[in-house]
Amino acid sequence: MSGKKTIVQRLATLRERLESGMDRREFLRTAVNAGYAVGMAQLLGVDDFLAVDDGTVPIVTALVRSDPDDPRSIEERTTTVPAEWYATVSKAFELHDSIAQASITGYLGSAVVPGDHRSGEATISVNVSVEDLGRTRAVLERILGDVAYNVESIEEVEELDEDRERIDPTFISDVGDVDDYRVPGGVGCQAEIGMATLTPALYHPQNDQTFFATARHAYGKSGDVRGGELALPFEDGTQVDLGRVRHDHPVEDIVAVEPTGEYLPDSAVEGSVSERVRGQFTRFGLADLAARGEPLQKVSALTGHTTGDIEGIDAITCLTGDVCRRGQLRWGNEEDMADGDSGSVSYHPDPDAPEEGVLVAGLNNARTWWPGQSYIWGTAAYQLTEQYGYHF
After folding, report:
1. Model's pTM, two decimal places?
2. Which parts of the sequence are annotated with region: Disordered (predicted)?
3. Among 366, 171, 380, which Cα is nearest to 290's?
């Protein structure tokens, strides 16, 4: 791949052009010219590059709170990866964005599938309607060149019906099981038209607010749902009010709910063993997890605790709603999610301190319902940060 080789060559000479004490503007210009994405370069510094070995480059894998109780104490977590792997995945991300902008007839979605660090490969997986399969291949060859890709057809998506076994939801036993009135993610909640699952506490550092959050589609498919109510149900049939929807994000399928009573969101995921949430993965952090074969986990109100492999990163889906959803994460298997699990998050133990907590990967708001594919999907945490400044 000529584009990949060009990036690798530029990365190889990057450190020679960097100097300790270089001002921020010059550093960013140098890093971006060498093949780093602007967003990635903004999170790195000169010292990150000067400290790595030949043939490797630093990437920012996560945003982690140095003080678990202070949402504003976010720090960048870095690791080192092979330069060739970084170049390949970067090129795949770049060309994947071109697919989304190409207005391909019958296009239903796509995702980047990073290879492992040793192979340095990455694949772009594309979904199209079955009747447009032939013409799509010709368009993709023109856009992608020699970047590896595969095309899978989906037949009559809108006419496929779901046939799911009913699962009884798991609710918190009673009010006494909510310590200090702090409610963790992974437990069932009641929105206006249905049940969903809470995320861990969602933060917005610009206005220093902490929100409950869950799936937006639990409030209906159209209109502004700001002001909508959210409640916490218990096993005995009672429930308490948690708050009102403050911010409505239908494309990302999430609502941020402002607490209005004594109950507050907690940075935790409730399960057989409760996990503290310390932060979240970046896009390249998820790619690095996939390259190392590390699975994700979730806890949700109906199917409980499940694990599964990452199936696609930076995904786009045009299967639901009137617009395509960007920044999606595909992982796991469709049988690991049921109606009422929407709003839960996928996560992985903090690679640097697994005993201290977990990092959020993304939302779980849908699953495949057509033959040939099986995964859960939802908006990745990094997409929420890039678009709105939220973080977990």
Report:
1. 0.91
2. 333-353
3. 380
